[in-house]
Design a protein that fits this description.
heterotrimer, A alpha+beta (311), B mainly alpha (520), C mainly alpha (215), A: 311 residues, alpha+beta, Arc Repressor Mutant, subunit A, 4 domains, three-stranded antiparallel β-sheet, 12 helices, 47% helix, B: 520 residues, mainly alpha, 5 domains, 14 strands
C-alpha cells in the first residue's frame, strides 16, 4: 500500500518539476531547443508527461512553438506586456521603460546603454527582441545620417527626427524648399510693387504696406497648393530666413498689442546690382593665381580672354 | 604699397610716358627715396635720361623731392597719383557733364601738362575750340572749376636771392589754394600773338612759353584729384540709395551731399548735420515737407545706416550722411556681388549667412541655409580653399581631438576688400599686358595701316582730283584678310579698354573703403 | 589627415573625424582617379557679366584712346632707345625721333625743379642753317607747295569735329614737325624715302655738346 501512495505523490509533483525543468532548459537556450533535444534532456519523463507539460507552458504563454528546419522548436517567450507575465526579463523591462520615456523623439542605442548600464550586446539583443515583437521601432533620424532612434511602435515620430516638412523619407527636399523660396519672394515682391503703385500713400504708409507677416505669406503659399504637407508659420519663417540670407528680403520687428513683438518681412533691392570687376574674365578665372606674364598661364595666351574677345 | 600696385603703376607709366619713366619710377618704388646718380647707376640708365624722366614725373606730380643733409636731393614716387592715371578719362568726362566742353578741354590740358598756367590753359583751349569769341567763356569755365575746387593752385616758389640753389622751396597759404590770379584780356591777347605768325596753327600740345609779360607767371594749376574722388564717392552713394530706396530718397541724399560739398573735409566720417528743412529747400523737384521727413526717417532706420539721425531736436530733426558707413555698405555689396558671380547664388547665401551670424559650424550652415548637406559642404570648402571664408578651430578638450572640436566658419569684409582690390589691380595689369601683346603681335598690320593712311593723306593733299583708280589701288594695298584682322584687333583693343574703364569703378569703391578705415 | 585613433598594424581602426565629411563613406568606391595633369584652362561654366554699353561707355572709350595717343605723341613721352633697324622703314619717318637723345623736348619751369635736373632743351629748328645732309634725293614737289597744300588741308580739317580728327592730326603733327625743319630757304628737302633724318639729329646734337650746352 505504501507504494501506491508514493506513486500518487510522485505523479502530482512530476508535472510541476517537469515544467520548471523544461522552462529552465529553454531559458538556457534562448534561441530555442528542438523537440528532440528536449526529449533527451528530460528523458526521465515519459512522452505523455512531457507533452502535457509543454502544452501547459504553451497555454500559459511561457513557451512558444516554432517550426525549425529539422522539426519543432520550443522557445522561451518574452512577455508582451510588462508585469502581466511573471518571469519577464527585468532588463527588457528597464529598456522598454527607457524607450517609453523618450516619447516620440526617440532615443538612440548609446543613450539607452548609458541609462540602463547594460552591455552593448545585451542591449542589442533586447532591442532586436522588442523590435520583432513590434513593441518598439527604429526610425532614421535626420540629425545624424545612419543613426537610428528607438521609440514605441505606435508613436508618430517627432519633426525633429524626421526633419519635418522639408524631409520626405530622410531625403532633404531641396527642390521643394527652392520653389517655396521663389514663391515667397514673388509674393513679397508683388506686395512691394502694389504698395508703390499707390501714389496717394505717404512714404511711411507705402513702406508699411510693403511688409508682410509670416502668416500672410503662409496664407498665400497654402492657396498655391504646392505643398503636400501643411506648413506652419514657423516653417515659412525658415524659408523667409533663407531669403534674408539671399539678401532679397529684410526683416523688422514691431511691437504687438499684448506686449509681444511680431516679425515682418519685406522684399529688398540690392545696393549694387553687379560689381564691374565681375565683367572681366579674370574674376571667374580658376587659375588666376597661377597667371603670370610670360608664364604657361598668362594674359598673353589666356584662353578665357580669347573667348571673351570673340563677342 | 603692395607689389601689385607697383606693377600696375609700371604699366600705366610705360603706356603714358614711356619705358624710361616707368623704369625710373619702378626703381624708386622698390627702393624708396633715392638720389639722382644712384638711380642712374642702379637702374642702369643714362644720367640725362633719368633727368628727363624725373623732370617729367615731377611736372606731372607723380614724383616728389626733398633734401637730405643739406646737400643730397632725393626723389620718391607718389604712387596714388600714378594709379590715378587710370581715372583721367573719367575726370575729363565728369567735367564735360558738369560744366561743358570748354571745361572739358581745360581739364584735358591740365592733365596732359600736369601743372599749367591759367593763361596757357585758356590759350590752348581757345586754339582748339572753333568759337572765335570763346576766351571769355573759357575763362569763366576755368573760374568755375577753381571755385568748385576741381582745379587747385600749386604752391609757389619762394623768391630765392642766391644764385645757387639746390631745390626750390614752396609756400602756400591755405587761403590761396583756390585764389585766382587777375588776368587781363591784354595779357591773353599778347600771349597769342607771341606765337609767331609763320607757325601754322596746328592743334597740338604746346609747352609753356616764357612770356614774362603774363601776369600769372609762376602761378600753376593742377587737377584736384581728391575733389574728383569726393564727387565719384557722392555719385556712388546716391546711385546705391536710389537703387535700394527709390528716386526721392536718392535725391534727398544727393541734396545732403551737395550741401556739404565744400564744408566736409576729405576724410571726414560724416557730413555736417543738415536739417530736414534745408534738405527740402534744396531739392530740385519739390516734395511736401512731410514726405521729406518721412523719407529721412525711413533712411535712418535702415540697417546700413548710410543716413543717420544726428539730433531729434528742432522741427524735423538733423541728419547726416555717414560716409564711413556708406563706404562699408558699398564695399560689402561689392564683395557679395563678386561671391555671387564667382561661386553662385547658393554659395552667396552661405556667405551672407556667415556674415550675419558671425561664426557658425558646418552643421549650422547646412541647417540655416536649407541647402542639401553635400552641396553646402562643397560651396563652403570651395570658398574656404580660395580664402573667402575663414575657419577657426575651437577645441573643447585639451588634446584638440577633431571629434570634440568646434570648427567655426566666418568671413571678414575688411580682409576680403583688400584681397579683392589686389585682384582688381592684377586684372587691370592683365588687361594691359594683353593689350600690349596684341599691339606687338599685329605690329605688321598696324604699321601697314599707318602707312596707307599717310599715303592717302599725301595723295589727297597733292592730287586733289586723284581718280578713282588710284584711290582704289591704295585701298587694295591691304588685303581683305588683313582688313579683317585689323577690324578684329580694333574690336579686341576696344573691349580691353572698356573693361579697364569699368573695372576702375570697383577699384574706386574698395580703395575708398580701405582709405576710410585707415583714416578713422 | 590625422588618424590618431588608428592602431598601428592592428587592422581597421576608427578615425578621429567624421568619415562622411570627406564626401564619401566607408566602403564606397573611391572617386574616379585623374590620369593626367589638370588642364591649364579648365572650361568655364559661365561667361563673365557683359560689359556695360551705351553712350557713356563709348565716349569714355574714345576719350581713353585719345588720351593715350596724345600722351604718347606729346613731348613728355620718353622713347626708349631702340636698336637701329638695318632696313630703313618708311614708318621710321613718322616714329618719334624725339627724346632718343640727351635733350628734353619741352621746357620745364626750371625754378620749380632741383637744379641738378637741368637738361638741355631741344631747340626748335625754325630758321637754322643746317649743313648739307650727306644723302639727298630730290623730291617731286618743292617745299613751298607742300606747305601750302598742308595749310589747305589744315583749314579743311579744323572745321570738322576735332575729336574725330585728333588722331590723324597727331600724325599730321609729327609730319609737320619734321617738315618745319626744312621749311625755309633751303632746297634740301626731305624725300618720300629719306633716310637722312636721323643722321641730321645726331649731328646737330653733337654740335650742341661741342658748344658746351646749356647747363
Amino acid at each position: 500500500k505504501m507504494q501506491t501512495d508514493v506513486e500518487v505523490k510522485q505523479e502530482a509533483t512530476i508535472p510541476l518539476t517537469l515544467e520548471t525543468e523544461i522552462l529552465a532548459l529553454c531559458n538556457d537556450n534562448p534561441k530555442g531547443i528542438s523537440d528532440k533535444s528536449l526529449e533527451s534532456a528530460v528523458a526521465g519523463y515519459d512522452v505523455k508527461q512531457r507533452v502535457t507539460a509543454i502544452n501547459r507552458l504553451l497555454t500559459m504563454g511561457k513557451l512558444e512553438l516554432l517550426k525549425g528546419s529539422s522539426g519543432l522548436i520550443y522557445r522561451i517567450k518574452t512577455p508582451s506586456a510588462v508585469g502581466s507575465i511573471s518571469g519577464v526579463d527585468n532588463q527588457e523591462k528597464l529598456v522598454y521603460q527607457i524607450i517609453e520615456s523618450a516619447g516620440n523623439k526617440g532615443i538612440w542605442t548609446r543613450e539607452i546603454r548609458y541609462k540602463c548600464n547594460l552591455m552593448l550586446t545585451e542591449v542589442n539583443k533586447i532591442l532586436k527582441n522588442l523590435e520583432s515583437k513590434k513593441i518598439i521601432k527604429a526610425v532614421k533620424s535626420v540629425a545624424a545620417a545612419k543613426r537610428k532612434v528607438y521609440m514605441l511602435y505606435n508613436l508618430q515620430p517627432d519633426r525633429s527626427v524626421t526633419g519635418g516638412a522639408w524631409y520626405s523619407d530622410q531625403d532633404f527636399e531641396s527642390e521643394f524648399v527652392e520653389v517655396l523660396n521663389q514663391q515667397c519672394f514673388k509674393f513679397l515682391q508683388q506686395k512691394c510693387e502694389n504698395a508703390e503703385k499707390e501714389t496717394t500713400l505717404s512714404p511711411t504708409a507705402t513702406n508699411a504696406s510693403s511688409f508682410a507677416s509670416s502668416e500672410e505669406v503662409l496664407e498665400f503659399i497654402s492657396k498655391l497648393g504646392i505643398s503636400k504637407v501643411t506648413l506652419s508659420p514657423e516653417d515659412i519663417e525658415t524659408i523667409l530666413n533663407t531669403l534674408i540670407y539671399d539678401g532679397k528680403v529684410q526683416q523688422t520687428v514691431v511691437p504687438v498689442a499684448n506686449g509681444e513683438s511680431k516679425k515682418l518681412f519685406k522684399a529688398l533691392k540690392p545696393l549694387i546690382e553687379t560689381t564691374d570687376f565681375a565683367r572681366t574674365p579674370c574674376s571667374l578665372c580658376p587659375v588666376f593665381n597661377e597667371c603670370q606674364p610670360g608664364g604657361e598661364i598668362s594674359p598673353e595666351n589666356c584662353l578665357y580672354m580669347d573667348e571673351w574677345m570673340e563677342y | 604699397m603692395s607689389s601689385r600696385e607697383c606693377l600696375l603703376a609700371y604699366e600705366l607709366l610705360q603706356e603714358h610716358y614711356g619705358k624710361i619713366a616707368a623704369d625710373v619710377a619702378s626703381f624708386l618704388l622698390q627702393n624708396g627715396w633715392q638720389p639722382l646718380r644712384y638711380i642712374a647707376l642702379k637702374a642702369n640708365l643714362k644720367l640725362d635720361q633719368v633727368r628727363k624722366a624725373l623732370c617729367l614725373l615731377i611736372q606731372h606730380k607723380l614724383a616728389k623731392f626733398h633734401v637730405r643733409k643739406r646737400k643730397i636731393v632725393e626723389y620718391a614716387i607718389n604712387i596714388e597719383n600714378v594709379l590715378s592715371i587710370l581715372f583721367h578719362p573719367k575726370f575729363i568726362y565728369t567735367v564735360k557733364l558738369l560744366y561743358g566742353d570748354a571745361a572739358e578741354l581745360i581739364v584735358e590740358e591740365a592733365l596732359q601738362h600736369g601743372i599749367i598756367l591759367m593763361s596757357t590753359a585758356i590759350k590752348n583751349v581757345a586754339d582748339r575750340l572753333p568759337d572765335e569769341n570763346g576766351s571769355g567763356k573759357i575763362e569763366k569755365a576755368f573760374k568755375d572749376l577753381v571755385q568748385t575746387h576741381f582745379l587747385q593752385r600749386e604752391p609757389e616758389v619762394e623768391k630765392n636771392e642766391e644764385e645757387e640753389y639746390i631745390v626750390p622751396i614752396f609756400t602756400q597759404n591755405e587761403a590761396d589754394l583756390y585764389r585766382l590770379p587777375t588776368l587781363s584780356e591784354e595779357s591773353l591777347k599778347r600771349k597769342r600773338s607771341d606765337d609767331g605768325s609763320d607757325e601754322p596753327k596746328a592743334k597740338r600740345l604746346k609747352s609753356e612759353h616764357e612770356t614774362p609779360s603774363v601776369k600769372d607767371d609762376g602761378v600753376y594749376w593742377s587737377v584736384n584729384i581728391s575733389r574728383f574722388q569726393q564727387y565719384f564717392r557722392d555719385q556712388s552713394i546716391v546711385a546705391s540709395v536710389t537703387q535700394r530706396f527709390g528716386t526721392p530718397c536718392g535725391e534727398i541724399v544727393r541734396a545732403m551731399l551737395r550741401i556739404s560739398e565744400v564744408t566736409t573735409p576729405a576724410n571726414a566720417q560724416s557730413t555736417q548735420p543738415i536739417s530736414s528743412a534745408e534738405i527740402a529747400r534744396s531739392l530740385p523737384q519739390k516734395l511736401p515737407m512731410e514726405h521729406v521727413e518721412q523719407h529721412l526717417k525711413l533712411l535712418s532706420n535702415d540697417e546700413d545706416q548710410i543716413v543717420q539721425l544726428f539730433d531729434d531736436s528742432g522741427s524735423g530733426g538733423l541728419y547726416v550722411v555717414n560716409l564711413k558707413n556708406s563706404a562699408l555698405a558699398l564695399a560689402t555689396a561689392t564683395v557679395l556681388s563678386y561671391v555671387q558671380q564667382r561661386y553662385g547664388s547658393k554659395a552667396c547665401r552661405i556667405f551672407r549667412l556667415l556674415m550675419l551670424k558671425k561664426h557658425l559650424e558646418q552643421k549650422q550652415v547646412e541647417e540655416f541655409a536649407m541647402i542639401p548637406p553635400k552641396e553646402a559642404k562643397g560651396y563652403l570648402y570651395h570658398m574656404l580653399a580660395e580664402n573667402m571664408v575663414i575657419m577657426q578651430e575651437v577645441p573643447r578638450t585639451p588634446d584638440h581631438a577633431p571629434a570634440r572640436t568646434f570648427y567655426l566658419y566666418s568671413v571678414n569684409i575688411q580682409r576680403l576688400s583688400r584681397i579683392l582690390l589686389v585682384k582688381c589691380y592684377k586684372t587691370c595689369t592683365n588687361l594691359m599686358t594683353r593689350h600690349n601683346h596684341l599691339i606687338k603681335t599685329n605690329k605688321r598690320i598696324l604699321d601697314k595701316e599707318e602707312r596707307i593712311t599717310a599715303i592717302k593723306v599725301r595723295v589727297n593733299a597733292t592730287l586733289p582730283d586723284a581718280d578713282e583708280a588710284q584711290l582704289e589701288e591704295i585701298e587694295e594695298m591691304m588685303t581683305s584678310s588683313e582688313r579683317t584682322s585689323l577690324t578684329k584687333h580694333q574690336h579686341c583693343c576696344n573691349k580691353l579698354h572698356t573693361a579697364q574703364n569699368q573695372l576702375l569703378n570697383t577699384i574706386f569703391v574698395l580703395d575708398s573703403y580701405l582709405n576710410a578705415l585707415s583714416s578713422a | 589627415m590625422s588618424r590618431g585613433g588608428k592602431g598601428r598594424g592592428r587592422g581597421r581602426g576608427s578615425m578621429t573625424f567624421n568619415v562622411e565629411a570627406i564626401g564619401f563613406g566607408r566602403g564606397d568606391a573611391l572617386p574616379a582617379s585623374t590620369l593626367q595633369p589638370p588642364l591649364p584652362y579648365p572650361p568655364l561654366r559661365q561667361q563673365p557679366v557683359p560689359l556695360l554699353a551705351g553712350e557713356e561707355t563709348d565716349y569714355l572709350l574714345a576719350l581713353k584712346k585719345e588720351y593715350i595717343q596724345t600722351m604718347q605723341n606729346s613731348p613728355y613721352f620718353i622713347q626708349a632707345e631702340q636698336a637701329k633697324n638695318d632696313i630703313v622703314r618708311y614708318s621710321d619717318k613718322y616714329k618719334s625721333s624725339k627724346n632718343m637723345d640727351n635733350t628734353i623736348n619741352w621746357k620745364p619751369d626750371w625754378r620749380r625743379l632741383p637744379s641738378e635736373l637741368k637738361v638741355a632743351v631741344r631747340k626748335k629748328r625754325l630758321a637754322q642753317n643746317i649743313g648739307p645732309p650727306p644723302k639727298l634725293v630730290k623730291h617731286l614737289k618743292t617745299g613751298a607747295d607742300i606747305t601750302k597744300t598742308l595749310d589747305a588741308l589744315e583749314k579743311k580739317e579744323s572745321k570738322t569735329d576735332h575729336e574725330e580728327n585728333e588722331e590723324e592730326e597727331e600724325q599730321e603733327e609729327n609730319f609737320e614737325n619734321e617738315e618745319e625743319q626744312e621749311e625755309d630757304e633751303n632746297d634740301y628737302l626731305t624725300s618720300y624715302f629719306d633716310n637722312g633724318e636721323n643722321y641730321l639729329d645726331e649731328e646737330e646734337d653733337n654740335l650742341d655738346d661741342k658748344d658746351g650746352g646749356i647747363y
